[in-house]
Write a structure and sequence with these properties.
four-stranded mixed sheet; 190 residues; Nucleotidyltransferase, domain 5; Polyprotein; alpha+beta; 6 strands
Length: 190
């Protein structure tokens, strides 16, 4: 580097920025969850590209600092048989180019309001988009069960069934047990 060029940030500086971004994404900013997930993967040895991505996320947040989270009460949110609980799952197939693992994402809603979200790297390499979506649906439903149990514990009356939205038809068929091809037998043993 030349005399006039800025010094490359230390790993500790990078980790501090990434930690702040992670806290913000987990508490208030669903929109940056996937990008923050990507930048956290190499926090032990960040590249110049990782540093640029972290700064880009921080710059995005700076431009959105007046954006607030608002939870409005609405009498139409409560149905006559209880509050609606639903979740949405998705997967980014082979999103990590270094190990080809997919990333699961999920959003959780109670009464039409987002109450939580997740973005997790899957433990195994998915062999297809269907498998990645199926695993994401499984992870999302496990998290949703926790939310439902919490709502029960605090006395919230809910509709008798919750809904998990999945956008992949092959994964939906697998979940329903309609796929008889046997192409996903290996998923059972994972």
């Amino acid at each position: 580097m030349g005399k006039g060029s800025p010094k490359r940030p230390t790993v500790q500086t990078f980790q501090s920025l990434v930690g702040s971004l992670l806290w913000i994404s987990r508490c208030t900013r669903l929109a940056i969850a996937f990008a923050v997930h990507r930048v956290t993967r190499r926090s032990h040895a960040p590249s110049e590209g990782d540093w640029r991505l972290a700064k880009k996320i921080a710059k995005y947040l700076k431009g959105k600092k007046k954006l607030n989270i608002m939870m409005k009460g609405d009498k139409n949110l409560m149905k006559k048989d209880g509050v609606v609980v639903e979740a949405f799952s998705d997967a980014a197939y082979a999103a990590d180019k270094s190990d080809r693992k997919s990333v699961s994402g999920g959003v959780f809603m109670v009464g039409g309001m987002i109450v939580g979200w997740m973005c997790k790297k899957q433990k195994y390499v998915a062999l297809s988009t269907m498998e990645a979506e199926y695993v994401a649906a499984s992870q999302t439903s496990a998290e949703m069960i926790g939310i439902v149990e919490l709502l029960k514990e605090i006395g919230v009356q809910m509709q008798s069934c919750t809904t998990l939205h999945v956008d992949n038809q092959a994964a939906i068929a697998q979940i329903k047990g309609e796929d008889t091809s046997g192409r996903a037998k290996h998923i059972d043993v994972r």
